[in-house]
Amino acid sequence: MTEQSDAEPANSPLTKEILVYVFQWLQDDLESLAKCCLISKKWCHVAKPLLWRSPVFYKCKQFERFRKIVAGTPGVAKLVLELDCDGYRREIMAYLQKLLKFLPNLEQVVFPCFASLSQHSLVPVDSGSLSKLQKIHYIEVLPSEEGIPFLTTLFGECTKLKELSLKLYGFSGISLPISFPTSHSITFIELIGDEFEETLIKSLLQRLPNLNRFELCADDVPRNLISSLASHCPKINQLKFEFTGTYMDVTVHNLLRQMIKKFGGRLKKVGILFSREARVSIPEDLINKLWRSLVKLESFSLSYFMITDMLNKLAKCEKKSLKELELAYVSNEAASLNTWENFFKACGGNLTKLSISFSKLPVDIGEVIARHCPNLREVSLYFTNISDASVIPIVQRCHSLRKLDLNTTDITAKSVESISEHCTQLEFLMLDKADNNSCPSEVEPLFSYLRKYGHRIQRVGLAGWTMTDELLRLIAETTPYLKELRITNGEYVSDAALEYLINKCARLKRLHVIGNSDGVGISKELLKKSDLIYSCN
């Protein structure tokens, strides 16, 4: 890239449009983008907003620079519009909360549920900046005198807010005032807590007339929750319930019956997730009725519910619109292959995302999946008993795979070889295994694969496989967009190879090296040093 000529001024619409396109193309490569900015100061007004819009910290030292610049340079702080903190170290997330008051133009702020925002962190220096917020995940509201006033401010001043995730623990006996404002902008709300009384939920839903997506994770569910949703939120088409407490069967039965009656014909996304403690028994005919009522279903998730006994019944109702299916803890006894075949034949034709985890499956279920789910882009079969007999047909026939998660399964080097031969578009490859008794030759197929397609890879898990200096150096040289790597320490890998990878992979955010040094392999000193380098370790 060179200096532009005087014939085309830097502020002309055409030049700016071209530069925005170029900088957006380079946005993932922040080093190149920064170098482009240095070539001509005329371009800074175009590049800076892109560079600072959604800051990403790969290493802890990058966060330290960001912290100092934002706290001391208001002009730069105003350019930060999106802050996604999910995955960072706890100490980084804690400091980012303190920095929020310096970011007056934030439109999106995302924190993980386990390290959610404090309501005090979201009080900016300029109260008018709340009107710019469009997305907030997750914020913890205190059940104190300040809690309801804070929610009132949130609903009243965040006039552009579309997505909101709230943690409301200890709100039993608390109600909303009559003057609590209505939000016409919020279309998605997620509530996490222990107990939600019917009056609180009903009052809240009355203020959300344009809600189309509702998620609840609680120890107790209000009896008339579905009726309140149907009465006050007529646009609802996505529901997700996570039952974390010990429920009476009748409570869940009534909720499902109401879902069928009030929403069955229009729901596109449904999640019913039980905890290990829930132990709810649901009649097969009720699940069958729910499944049949979901005529527009596009996404379905279910956990801690034994589904295999009723697969044949569910298979009798086709789900041609189903695109995402997520099942966890659904089988402790493998249903017959024929049963799974009938099921996938009925609902697998348009699936793009399939996840079955923590379940016992027919070891060759992959043949059925490959036959009936040709459009899959993401396949996750982690913590199951599947073998090469399942993996090989999937990778041979599903040509659009972007994600393959086979963590802790029974695969061998044959699967690695088949993946290397057929998967040309993978971005996420997780092959971690529990044991560590492989030999270096078992991962040799990855060498040619990385040379051809390593530029696509962003996340790799090879823990349990024998890592060598040669493979580690090849990963460093062929995966410029690598963000996460999991490997096992051992006799064939050295400090020099790991240091080479650390210096080479500029975008690496998380590096996990399993196992301490016992005099061979990577030293304890380097392991400790590398653990402190990355922002997400």
TrEMBL record:
Pfam family membership, one: LRR_At5g56370
Superkingdom of this protein's organism: Eukaryota
SUPFAM superfamilies: F-box domain, RNI-like
Domain F-box stretches: 17-57
Recorded GO CC terms: SCF ubiquitin ligase complex
GO biological process, one term: SCF-dependent proteasomal ubiquitin-dependent protein catabolic process
InterPro entries to which the protein is assigned, alphabetical: F-box-like_dom_sf, F-box_dom, Leu-rich_rpt_Cys-con_subtyp, LRR_dom_sf, LRR_FXL15/At3g58940/PEG3-like
Residues in F-box/LRR-repeat protein 15/At3g58940/PEG3-like LRR domain copies: 318-424
PANTHER family with a match to the protein in the record: PARTNER OF PAIRED, ISOFORM B-RELATED
Protein name: RNI-like protein
Biological classification of the source: Eukaryota, Fungi, Fungi incertae sedis, Zoopagomycota, Entomophthoromycotina
